[in-house]
Amino acid sequence: MLYHLFRYLENIFTFPGAHLFNYISFRTGLAFILALLLSTMLGRRIIDYLQKKQIGETIRDLGLEGQMSKKGTPTMGGIIIIIAILVPTLFLANLTNIYIILMLITTVWLGLIGFLDDYIKVFLKNKEGLSGRFKIVGQVGLGLIVGMTMYLSPSAVIRENIEVKGVTTQRVESVSYAKKDVKSTKTTIPFFKNNNLDYADAFKWAGANAQKYGWILFVFVAIFIVTAISNGANLTDGLDGLATGSSAIIGVILGILAYVSGNLNYSGYLNIMYLPGTGELLVFAGAFIGATIGFLWYNAFPAQVFMGDTGSLTLGGIISVFALAIHKELLIPILCGVFIVENLSVVLQVGYFKFTKRRFGEGRRMFKMAPLHHHYQKPGNSGIVALFQRPIQAMPESRIVIRFWIVGIILAAVTIITLKIR
């Protein structure tokens, strides 16, 4: 709103300083600061309210180090993150930008699903929360909205990068761009010489219908990614600050990718497709990073508040939709490696247990406990992985979190490097 107000003041009254709001970097800085202040200052009030209403976490004793000390800690703190993201974005972003609209819808959509899940657990005393099928329907529905918006919106376009090679060396001398913005099913793929992948290429046999089928494939990819990453973030939210800090790291990289993709000079230097309008997403990324860092003030070990599904589903959904919007969804396996490994650890644990139960009549475990972070938190030495490591004691929670953050930082650096390694 302030963006549009100051644009109006500049155009009509030549208001002094109003032109600053034309700069994405200026608005991103303000968004970050405002989100940080909101999440820390408003966060304290919300935590006090949650404590007053006795909206605390119910803990089952699973034999994890320090687990029972968390009993009664206020939950549903994801409300703090959501407010701290929405307010700066509404005030400082260009609200006519299709990508900003998409991110606002994502934040509210998954925030509501997560809130319903937490509400059922806390107020209705149903430990199962919202039925799994309703969560999936909500995630699939969001993926469908994202995919169809990218397909139908005239503003969601790309300008493909064209390599200009030397006559004798065949090395890339420079990068030029097509003269027109076009609708396209192309995306960025890491490590390949030409790091543009067209989903329509899988349907070359369809001739003129290849692009149509390519968009159908993209919609399915969007649904899969939204579901996988939002669930991954949800599973990662099991230790104090783990999901929050990991999300902040990912948010920094997504903001950088959005900015360079939306800037013709930087995208040309990196030899990636130019995406008009995606630079505006940097403002949203600033709010996202500020909100998560501010929430970490209270969520770091020992946590004074948990985000609950209200926060974790929202964070995962934001990350996945953001990556889809900037055509960098194929970088997610690297960038969101922590979330994906947490997801896979649960899938492997359940699958191996069922397989061994059918085969030997007794279910066996691959890890001491899943998701993976609990494997390091649980004392003793059991599961198939015990064959490959010496007996270990329970690792302190803060050490597990920091080591996962370090892994996340390494993966974030690799994600950026992939733009030049091909």
Topology:
Elements: H1 2-13, H2 24-52, H3 78-92, H4 98-122, H5 132-152, E1 161-165, E2 172-177, E3 186-188, E4 196-198, H6 210-236, H7 242-261, H8 264-270, H9 281-299, H10 308-325, H11 332-335, H12 337-360, H13 372-377, H14 397-417
Antiparallel strand pairs: 1-2, 3-4
Helix pairs in contact: 2-3, 2-9, 3-4, 3-9, 3-10, 4-5, 4-10, 5-6, 5-10, 6-10, 6-12, 7-9, 7-10, 7-14
Overview of this structure, please?
By secondary structure, this protein is mainly alpha-helical. 59% of the residues lie in helices and 4% in strands. The protein has 14 helices and 4 strands. It has a two-stranded antiparallel sheet. Strands 3-4 form a two-stranded antiparallel sheet. Strand 3 (186-188) and strand 4 form a beta hairpin. The two termini are 42 Å apart. 47% of the residues are buried.
